[in-house]
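Dear Dr. H.,

I hope your travels went smoothly. While you were away I took the liberty of generating a structure for the chain from your last submission, since the lab meeting agenda had it listed for discussion. I wanted you to have the full record in hand beforehand rather than looking at slides cold. The sequence, exactly as received, is reproduced here:
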Amino acid sequence: MDKCSNNILKNKQDMKIEMEKEDPEETILKLQNQIENFKLKMEDFAGHVKRFEIEKKERIRRNNDKINLIAGMIFNHMNELYEQVLEKLNQKEAVAEENQEMNNEMWKNTENTALNIIEDLKVIYNEGAGVLNE
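The corresponding predicted structure, in token form, is as follows:
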């Protein structure tokens, strides 16, 4: 037998010898006291377990609150970034439209200038042809 088993066996034997020496009523009172003490210890332990469970739930709730707060902050920041990106895209589109309008206007001006030059060249040609015919 191992040392622990020997101790348990010895304690049982010691209790048996002690109980044989004592009055049965006194033994019953001792056992009742031990049972009462055990009940009190169990109630105390149950109280500790209950407090631990309450504290654990409170820690979980606080952690969840922190997680929700951080998630909300991230969501708000992402929303702001999304709005900024949309704004930049809209600005780029507006600039692109403005550039397209300017390009169209420049082509019109270039076309008008080219037509004016052609007309001027016709006039010069006709005047030159008229001088030659004289």
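Two observations you may find useful: Residues 3-133 form one domain. The chain has a mean pLDDT of 84.

With kind regards,
E. W.
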